[in-house]
Amino acid sequence: MALLELENITKHFGAIHALTDVSLSLDPGEVMGLMGDNGAGKSTLVKIVAGNYPPTSGIMRMDGRELILRRPVDARAHGIEIVYQDLALCDNLTAAANVFLSRELEMRAGLFNVLDYGAMYRRTGQIFGELKSETRPRDLVREMSGGQRQAVAIARTRLAEARIVLMDEPTAAISVRQVAEVLHLIRQLRDQGIAIVLISHRMPDVFAVSDRIVVLRRGRKVADKAIAKSSPEEVTGLITGAIEHVL
Amino acid sequence: MTPITDEPPKRPRAEWLRWLTSSQAFWVLVAIVVACVFLSLATNSFATPNNLFNITRNFTFIAVIALGMTIVIITGGIDLSVGSVLCLCSMILAVVMHAGYGMMAGIAASLACALAIGAFNGVVIAYVGIPPFVVTLAMLSLARSLAMVASNNTVVFQFGPDQDKLLFLGGGALLFGVANPVVYTILLALLTGFVLRWTKFGRYVFAIGGNEHAATLTGVPVRPIKVAVYMVSALSAGIAGIIETGWLGAVTTNLGSGMELQVIAATVIGGANLAGGVGTAFGALVGSALIEIIRNSLGLLGINAFWQGAFIGTFILIAVTFDRIRNWRQAE
Fold it and tell me: Which pTM does this prediction carry?
């Protein structure tokens, strides 16, 4: 059974039709590349799945049951985590503090509950270990490379026991070596049975890790096929409209 | 593949040294020690019990508010209303006690007023979305005006039946000749340091200052925390007002005027960053102490007191430059 299904999702903002009748399904452990030009509806789709706003019409299902999201917290409660383009990290805090932000572990000390630094460092170290990342829990995010920052953002989704991770342009604006690190992190997540939606402009990255590719153009789905049966040329054609659609 | 250990390696000693020397508060402390040694040798009036008693007491009024201000500044905010809030809270204490009520009633009324003002500031900033600079600038004007209304712009110097208690609270010395306000300040500093380092509240304060957008997305209750932060700031001004009233034995409507700038100067000198995300309780203390020592030493050295502002201004510039240099070093 599909983990997440979208059925005829439509979203209008006044007269603007951001999404029209988009249907998708996502399996556990599957990496789906979501591509499209600016304004094609990628962000709108992500925001609907993230609970930022409801669709105008259409149904979402998770494990076959209807999924109604009123706020981002609802999405998170269902195991849907988002890694934002700007990563949403606090530079002045350590990696562990960011991973545990708003989910801090506490321990009893006399009359008070105090932060349990030891436990948070240990657990964060463990997650970085699982992700095979060399990021250290005590380092300040300010002093980290782009790849390490990605690892922190991704570690946060691991802590939440996420089932679906939506990644918005994770490889934009970082160095080639760091891109390799991030793609590696994505494979690690996939191997643990997590479904990933990878939104990216970078064709090579999408082709490197995705199992399937979905292309949006002007709010409509114009392609949905196994990556092995497609090619960068075809996808470019689909994005620009040179190829009408392949479904 | 390299084996993965649960515990990251302990910081070697050299790194502790680097951490210490990269701390702005540490260098301010060094400056204070140097100044104290110099003043002890250069004058015979500095290292007297009387003068040390005065210095340690005088710095507390700024230090207590600087603790609250530090928390506000860590969130990336600012509170310009503290001087006026101090005045209003002192005046409410004075008026209530003058009317014949006990000291506890006066303190309760005074602190309740501080919390109400802080809550008002915080709600307008966090929920209405008006910048803290503007909201607290308005409150600066408003609170002082209310203090004038409450006292009809007179000086209150009679505090009813509990007058002696109040004067002891602010002017006495309970422990080994240490002025009472110093004891309160140290306790409040320890409390502030504890809250900032060991509680969720403290963690959220830093998170908001580091990246408010990220904090919101991650589920940090940003708005309630902001309201609480401005309440703490106003409360610290209220506490300082009560102590100062007890010391002065009189309240005028220009009490604490211009104090907000001295407090902000103290926190910045102590290492808090006005851009948010950085600051310590210890820094608030040493920043306040440095300002008081400058003030005190100019008098003792026979230098015209008008130079005080020049020295404080210079130290602010040094402090900010220091921060900039440290960032360069980190960027390399």
Answer: 0.85
